[in-house]
Amino acid sequence: xxxxxxxxxxxxxxxxxxxxxQVVQAPYGAFTRIGKYADALMDEHGMQLxxxxxxxxxxxxxxxxxxxxxxxxxxxxxxxxxxxxLGHLYAAxxxxxxxxxxxxxxxxxxxxxxxxxxxSETHDIWHIVTGSDxxxxxxxxxxxxxxxxxxPSRFWVALLAKNFLKTxxxxxxxxxxxxxxxxxxxxxxxxxxxxxxxxxxxxxETPIDQIRAELNINxxxxxxxxxxxxxxxxxSSINLASETALSASxxxxxxxxxxxx
Length: 261
Hints:
With 261 residues, the protein is mostly helical. Helix content is 63%, strand content 0%. Helix 7 crosses helix 8, helix 8 packs antiparallel against helix 9 and helix 8 runs parallel beside helix 10. It starts with a helix and ends in a 12-residue tail after the last helix.
């Protein structure tokens, strides 16, 4: 590596580190900062590896060729569907969390923008399909599932790293719960068929159990593994929340707000 290339590499590393600490200090769900973090991480080699992986299925290859989106989503209409359908569950999830449907998008000019938009608009559908709620553990489960599905992806690895550091700094009492979510998300994502490129708008009326069966998704691991994850090493007499608050107050970083991501 010559001097110029070395300098560029060091500068990129500094930018990534700066963006990393920005999202660590930001409240959960700070999507603008997450987007800048993603921009800093992206590189041509990593993009090519991920694109090659996503194109391994016919639906993934077609999605990358057509760069198709969900289109218009009418939450009120979806709520009229039977309660066990993907559409009803998705609409109820969006309403319950005060979320708006994704906008109708113009065609993406390149693969990177398409993928970023695709992840943004299908994120809540993946919540439903994987049985993940919107707690911090639920978000981490979806992120780990996404890493397994989009592997290899620098972005999802780095996003998990961000959440691990936030836990270490501010919410260590959640460690066991979050690590259990990581285990579930990773195993579920590795076992499942590829979700990328599925035309979800054609499946609104399909029962969620049928979708999960066809995609080989089970929100629960075998009983022996779930039992292991349910075990706790914490002594209930120890007030970790107080210790965490004391530790965070002495930190030069501003503690993140406790809101869902």
